[in-house]
Structure formats: structure tokens, C-alpha cells
Amino acid sequence: MSKHKWLYFWGLVIAIILIICYRSLPPNTSLVTIKLSGWGGSPVEQKLLKQVLQDFEAKHPTIKVKYEVISDQYMDVIKTRLIGEAAPDVFYLDALEAPFLMSQNVLEPLDIYIKPQFDLADFEENLLNSFKYKNHIYGFPKDYSTLALFYNKKAFTKAGITNPPTTWDELRLFSQKLTGKLNKYGFGESPELARQSYKIKAFDGELIDKNDYAAFASEASLQGLNLVIDQYRQDKTSALKSDVGASSGSDMFGQGKVSMVIEGNWAIPYLQETFPQIDFATAEVPKINNKKGTMVYTVAYVMNKQTKHKKAAWELISYLTSKEGMEKWTGKGFALPTRKSVAEKLGYDQDDLRSALVAGVDYATPWQVGEYPAAIVNNFDNQFLSALLGEQPLNQAMLRAQNNANQQIKMME
Fold first, then answer.
1. 109 in helix, strand or coil?
2. What are the tens digits of pLDDT across the range 57-98?
3. Does the pLDDT value for residue 12 go beyond 60?
4. 281: domain range?
5. What is the rounded distance in angstroms from the CA atom of residue 53 to the CA atom of residue 325?
6. Of 60, 141, 188, 262, which has fewest CB within 10 angstroms of its CB?
7. 138 within a domain of the structure (yes/no)
8. Distance between the two ends of the chain, CA-based, in angstroms?
9. Where do transmembrane segments lie in this chain (predicted)?
10. 362 CB contacts (<8 Å, ≥6 apart)?
């Protein structure tokens, strides 16, 4: 066959394929492009998400997804675009930021799109509740992490400790035994409110009142926070990352500066890849005041109320948070699934390192502090660190933080 006949033949084949593909689409169907925005994760996570999006497009040939990473000042960018009506169709929303956006009428309620096969009851209730506002659901959580105790098995053996602590009193006692042995300190502390909220809750303290004003300066709240102050200043068996030249709690644990830290699921792949020599295990966060407690952090997919492609946007959200999509996204262990059936199928409740994290989801304190989180978080973090360093009494620091936060909130209302 001549060259010209070959070209003609293959041109004809391609034309036939295109016609078949075109005819396979429903009548009056056109290609829709929707934008999905999120923040960047590790290269492995980014590659995994792109694979899931490719699977979605293969199953939805009329929808094209344009994925955008906003690497800096994520929420500021999203809020600015929402005001300017240039926000993406679908985007990540952290539980911490959700109350404000849900109250501003800029998100599409997702209740009307839910069908029985979506199996709403399969979601962990404690996670789904973070995205409910005035009897509407505005987002479906894509993954989560609680906190668990990470401990150095070699350090425990050297100190003659056979089991992880189950109470905070035991944690302090073990910290004393561990300090100065294999590691310089027994425990690595993260003083931010994002890591301290469950200690406040352990004594029935509150972070905010019913009007979303700061309320963490009560006597009950101070009882939980004093545990941190006493261990750091009196026992001298805990350390901050700045004390040991580390970048995070996971880093000071990996470097061998501390024998125990309380971290999330993100620490597992980080430690395995960065510090493969560390032989570590996990356990549930020790009880405080005879109560189980931990934190839970979660992120949802939400829909921009102004999107012109609501049907396509819902198709994307429902696929990414479906049993199939979630299994693909969380199957590598970089994130934990928010659907109970997926967690059970992947066996994370039996996983040596992740079972302690999964166990905490039912009793965890959600990382959420009302509609004005920045004022509350920033003032707490600054003043609590000052008290931890001995620059002022704890009660004075918390009262100052609470008053400053509430003054700022009143100005923003």
C-alpha cells in the first residue's frame, strides 16, 4: 500500500473514532470545564490527587477539571475571589475557616443534591458536623487526622518502660524517667491552641461561648493548661521545637531530641521517609481528668454558590467523597478516610500505627473556634507562649488573650 493510501486509511479510522465518540454523548451535550482549587501537599499527594481526577474525567467525559494549587495565603486568596465573583467552582475548606464562610451566604448548600446511593450516614458524624450550618450541609470532608502519642520504642526499653502512658500523670512520670537517657527530653510540646483545646475540654472548659466570643480564661480552662506549664517549668522534662533547634514536633522526635510527642497522621510518612532509623509506635492520647481526648482536623470540598456549573461541580464533589473516590485518595495512608466503610475496608482500625488515630475520631474535639478564628487563635498562641516561658502568670496571660480577642471580634462584627 502506498504512503498516500496509508495516510488516507488512518485518517479515515481517526474520523470514524471521533464520530463514534461524538455520537456516544447525550444530545445537546457540551464539554464543561470546572476549576478545583486547593493548597499544595507533598509531591506524592499531588500525584495521587491528579490520578483520582483523571479517573473522574474518564467516568465523566463531558466534564474537564482544571486543578489549581494556591500555595500562599490560601484563605485570603479564596475570600478575595469570592468577593470579586472569581472564585473556583469547587475548593478545599478547612474546618477552622468553615463557620465564617458558611455564615456569609457564599457557599452552595449541598443537601438538595444528595441521593440515597451517596450514603450520607457512612460519614463520621463528628467530621460532617463541622460543615453544617443552620440545618444545611455545606461541605463533605475529604479526609482527616486526629492526634496520637508517638513514642520511641528504644528509649522506652532503655528506661525500663514496657507500655505507653494511659493517663497524663503517667506521661509526666514517664517523661521524668526518659529525660536525659537516650533523648535529651522526655516529651516534645506544641503550645498552639490547635494542640491544647482538648486539655481545656478535659476539665469542662470552653474555647468560645454561644456568641462565638473567646472563653478560655475560666478556672476550668486553666486547669488543663496548667498541666503544660507545670511539666515545662517545674518538671523540666518537656521541650518546645525552638529549644532543640527543630522545625516541628515530628522533627524533634525524628532527630531524637525527645522520646514522646503528640502528632497526627502526617507524622507517619514523614518519619518513615526522613528518619527511617527511628523505631516508633503510637498509642491513644493519655486520658486527662479520667477523660479521653484528642483533636481532629478535617478539610471538605465545598461549592461556590456563584458557580455556573453546579451540576458538574456536584458530580466532582460526590465522586471525590464517594466510597470509590475516597478509597483511591486515602488508600496510600497519607490521609485517613472520613467514610466508615472505607476505613474498615482499608483496615486502618487494625493498622499498627494508625489504629490509635482512628480510635480517637469519635471523642475528638473538632478544630473549630467560631466565625472569627484568627483573633482567638493568634491572641491565645501569643499569650500562652509568654506564660509558658515564665514571662507572666497563666491566669493573667489568658485573661489578656481573651479580652484582646473579644475586642477584635467586636470590631469585625
1. coil
2. 999 999 999 999 999 999 999 999 999 889 999 999 999 999
3. no
4. 147-296+368-412
5. 9
6. 60
7. yes
8. 79
9. 7-25
10. 124, 126
